[in-house]
């Protein structure tokens, strides 16, 4: 059984430098997941920064925190019994977000912990919610994230030829991670 | 080497921007072409360059930050900025819906209407379309000054 970062790569259809989850710390199929994302100053989002900026200018882009949360949600859904595999496959994607609130920032050196819960599984949609923390400080609350599964042909533009060798890897179930 | 950016961002989420202010709103049109060479896109996804819809949120905050000076009323509502007053952050995301994939070569047109939100916040409504006028995403968000929350 894969564990650690290899497990994440085997599950998510994204690759470096867009893999924004570093570790699965807890996993309960059909229920919840907790993940960790370490913010590093070497990430592309910090390139070409001017010199002599005050520390707060290095706030990690909040869109990236939300993307990291979304990838954590995908890991949960892919590992659930009603996930995209059961719904006929397809790429897991965020279809809709509602009622998200940012209440803080993360900086290089911080570890963001995402807690994601499945609220409902309906056909090929998953309704999830949760929050992201730095230490004991909540920096993001997600009221509702609806994940959808889309066939690769649809994602690629309605049947456009896509090399199978170049296609995203088939999602696999995360299984029980090493804690 | 001295860089230019005064706040962190995943990529430059707009290529060009036009904007005009009316009595109580700022109307922005920003264009962004999806390029595989942009930061982060090499990994999203391997074999298909798919623009992360979440980056549209950066398009909103970068465009509004750059053009806010055109509307003194909205700038005053948002509150005083620092020496680099173009740094805005996402406060809330009321809703975001992704309707179509955004692929390499697509030119995305971000139409953003900015109005006053709660005290210290601006409300931005995004209608994002491809060059063929197909709507690909819509979002409603509130922006705050960077470094405040």
Automatic annotation (TrEMBL), chain B:
Where on the tree of life does the source sit, at the highest rank? Bacteria
For this protein, the record's InterPro entries field holds: FabA_FabZ, HotDog_dom_sf
Q: Which SUPFAM superfamilies match?
A: Thioesterase/thiol ester dehydrase-isomerase
Question: What is the name of the protein in this document?
Answer: 3-hydroxyacyl-[acyl-carrier-protein] dehydratase
Q: Which organism is it from?
A: Streptomyces mirabilis
Q: Which classification does the entry list for the species?
A: Bacteria, Bacillati, Actinomycetota, Actinomycetes, Kitasatosporales
């Amino acid at each position: 059984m894969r564990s650690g970062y290899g497990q994440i790569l085997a599950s998510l259809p994204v690759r470096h430098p867009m893999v924004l989850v570093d570790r699965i710390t807890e996993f309960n199929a059909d229920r919840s997941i907790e993940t960790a994302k370490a913010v590093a100053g070497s990430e592309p989002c910090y390139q070409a920064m001017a010199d002599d900026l005050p520390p707060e200018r290095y706030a990690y882009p909040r869109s990236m925190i939300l993307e990291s949360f979304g990838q954590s949600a995908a890991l949960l859904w892919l590992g659930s019994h009603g996930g995209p595999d059961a719904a006929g496959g397809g790429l897991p994607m965020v279809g809709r977000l509602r009622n998200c609130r940012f209440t803080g920032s993360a900086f290089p050196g911080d570890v963001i912990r995402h807690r994601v819960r499945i609220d409902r599984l309906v056909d090929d949609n998953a309704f999830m919610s949760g929050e992201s923390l730095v230490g004991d400080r909540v920096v993001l609350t997600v009221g509702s994230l609806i994940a959808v599964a889309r066939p690769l042909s649809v994602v690629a533009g309605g049947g456009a030829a896509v090399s199978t060798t170049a296609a995203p890897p088939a999602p696999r179930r995360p299984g029980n991670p090493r804690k | 080497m001295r860089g230019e950016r005064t706040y962190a961002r995943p990529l430059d989420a707009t290529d060009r921007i036009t904007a005009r202010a009316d009595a109580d709103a700022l109307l922005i049109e920003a264009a962004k072409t999806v390029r595989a060479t942009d930061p982060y896109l090499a990994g999203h996804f391997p074999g298909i360059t798919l623009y992360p819809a979440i980056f549209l949120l950066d398009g909103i905050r970068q465009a509004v930050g750059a053009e806010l000076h055109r509307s003194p009323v909205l700038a005053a509502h948002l509150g005083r900025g620092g020496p680099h007053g173009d740094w805005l952050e996402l406060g809330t995301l009321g809703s975001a819906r992704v309707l179509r994939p955004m692929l390499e070569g697509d030119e995305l047109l971000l139409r953003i209407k900015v109005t006053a939100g709660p005290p210290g916040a601006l409300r931005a409504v995004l209608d994002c379309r491809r060059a063929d006028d197909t709507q690909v995403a819509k979002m409603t968000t509130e922006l705050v000054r960077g470094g405040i929350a």
